[in-house]
Amino acid sequence: MPTYTELDRPAQFLKNVGPKRADLLAKLGLLTARDVLYHVPHRYEDASTVTPISALEPGMDATIIGRVVSKGVLPTRRGLRIFQAVVRDGGGLIECSWPGQPFLDRQIARGDLLLLRGTCRFYHGRQFQPREYTTLAREGEESTEESGTIFPVYPATEGLTHRQVRTLIAENLDGLLRQARDDDRLPRDVRERAGVVPLAEALEAMHRPTTLADAERGRQRLAFEELFFLQLLHAQAHHRAAAERPGIAFPRRDTLVKPFHKSLPFALTGAQKRVLKEIGTDMASPRRMNRLLQGDVGSGKTVVSLFAMLRALENGYQAALMVPTEILAEQHSRTLIKLLGDLPVSVGLLTGRLKTKQWEEVTYRMAAGDVDIAVGTHALIQDGVAFHKLGLVVVDEQHRFGVKQRQAIQERGDNSDTLVMSATPIPRSLALTLYGDLDISVLDERPPGRQPIKTALRNESARPKVLKFVAEQVALGRQAYIVYPLVEESEKVDLKAATVEFEQLKEVFPELRLAIIHGQMPGEEKDRVMRSFSAGEIDILVSTTVIEVGIDVPNATVMVIEHAERFGLSQLHQLRGRVGRGSEESFCILLHSGGEAAQRLKIFASTEDGFAIAEADLRLRGAGDLFGARQSGLPAFRFADLEKDIQLLSAARGEARAIVDRDPELASHPELRDALESRYGDRARMFHVG
What we know:
This protein is of the alpha/beta class. Keywords: ATP-binding, DNA damage, DNA recombination, DNA repair, DNA-binding, Helicase, Hydrolase, Isomerase, Nucleotide-binding.
């Protein structure tokens, strides 16, 4: 059990807190002394680069510090109310103006010492327009910041300003830091190899930095600690999965793998060869394989997975391939049969569409061992479905399945190996965070000969020309997608919606065959529409992002995306991947409303590298927005930044795995075991599921 320390005492008993202020601290989630110590600044004001007011010139972007000598709200003829304050430093004074922010009159008082960032302009003389301000001190209060230092700005709440939080922490910091020296859970050797400072030193650097580099050094220590304990949890889950469920050794026999390799009409890429070696090493060992295979659209994941399945088959076992939709299951079944050619391998397809007699026949053959590779949807995990000797489970588009569903298919076998695949490129930092308990293989090379997709950015005004181009492509016998971000129009959002535009597009293309598909349609209806489109019975498919993943229609050569600025770059990449799947030249056209979004879309149009796009998306939108609700397993970090902390993350993973390899249950590291318990509780139980 975790040990109680002085840092666990209620925040109420800190200096100058008391019951009333403790209630305010509770609004910030600060219940204990430890919470207060770890309540680090969310930004810093660099008062070391302050410009004297007398030196300000129009057009200059600057930071100034001054006392408020007068203030008031100025109304204009157009009804706009402007808050103005005159501030003075030792060498001059200047009028500061906040158009449309009269409420500041209640927040800023005469005598306040302010730090202001903004731009000097000329308006009846020099005027300063602040973008942001910070109150350093009230009238009569002394402030060391006037001389020019780095000082922290803390998250605050109503009734407790950031200035009051800063004062409260400063008054208690020395005592809290003394206690923090005994709270350091990182082993010294781990800390030194990672190049991070001790805990108390890190916290002092964040609360009392002398430079911004000091604050960053403190953040890196706390970030490494967050990443290290997460990776320690992953490492334990990885070890327990292997120990509790030992796998099957699949030696290479080459009775199927070698003939299959020789029969391929193309050469494997370097990335495919590398990944096959990684998978082969896993399968040859008695340790249960639990591997994630990441690869962009067209990178050859299916071929790689088939090599793995054949290795299981030539050792006397069956393989299963589970996919999220019936159409995908049918596509994979056809692809596998085509790739296998004359090899003596039977492929069985199990989906909910099968009639009772067909279902009984397939499930009987699976249980009898007459089906070598079973391809199916959730049907594979329904009650009554059994395998004769399942040795390898492959899960495609793994993020579309819940943990329990993936666990259910794994349990259909007797310690079967597992290969989960994703066509959604994930930056390495996110992959290690989300799937740190899995071994990760990446296909980052596309097979030669695949035609590039021409991507074009067009303003909304070009829409008539774009639709004319779509008609021309259809006249050549091709098919097209037109994608919208919404299903129905909204009063709150001025965007085109699929259902409304579908009716208008039928008037634009009266001679063509149009259909619509979106997520609110019943599953059977969506399935019927996609089958018709796949069969060439529909010329233009109007859609929302329901077609984002897995739809394979080689004859579709045009993807038009309306309001492209409303999509993330990774989502746009998945949509673009629906075309360019055949031999004809393909196009992706992004219609947008201009503005700042155009620059972001140019990044997307400049490359087809899904991993580069995912990195850009992470940089622009952050991990939470990139994955949204779909990836609820993404932990919330207070200190770590997955875009810039990849080296810290890799170091944390290496250190964590090395410790668990030597001491799986952390018997020699009780401080680490206690820290895991306090941080994660029983969350480790589901971590071993791929």
